[in-house]
Amino acid sequence: MLYAFRTPQAILIGSLLCLAATAAAAERAKPDLARDLQRLALAEQTWARALETGDVRLLESFVDEDTCTFIGPDGQLEDRTAYLEGYRQLDKLGVKVDKITMDQVEMRVLGDTAIVTGHVVARVLVQGNAIVEDVRFTRVYARRGAAWRMVAGQGTRITPPPSPANP
Description:
- This protein has a six-stranded mixed β-sheet.
- It is built from four helices and six strands.
- The radius of gyration is 25 Å and the shape is globular.
- The protein has one domain (32-157): Nuclear Transport Factor 2, Chain: A (Roll).
- It is of the alpha+beta class.
């Protein structure tokens, strides 16, 4: 009785059903670029909000727990602990981030890795004195389940161009 179902037509139909099931599974597993870009934009907004509110726990929520390296505008290399501790110390040092503005943000998703670059202007009060930090940044994210976690970052302070020499 078992051999009665192994006709060429039955084999063809079985093969087509397997192929259709495989194609459907591949489509479900296919990354959703729009969703990824939306989640990365949310991570960037979370970073800005965490700084503006001084909420280090919020910042911790998207900085990868296993590996994170950050190079600050001064060229100093920090691991996750040092990066977060720097933000914990702001209040004690009399530093208050007033406003973060980001523009020129570009996001690239490369499988389970994403690269975000852009420009940020931070209006900061340092012991009551207003300063403006003008920085270009790169952040690298890794997909962890359905979320994106920052695994590396780098900021470069933009210095004003030298004033032209007077003849």
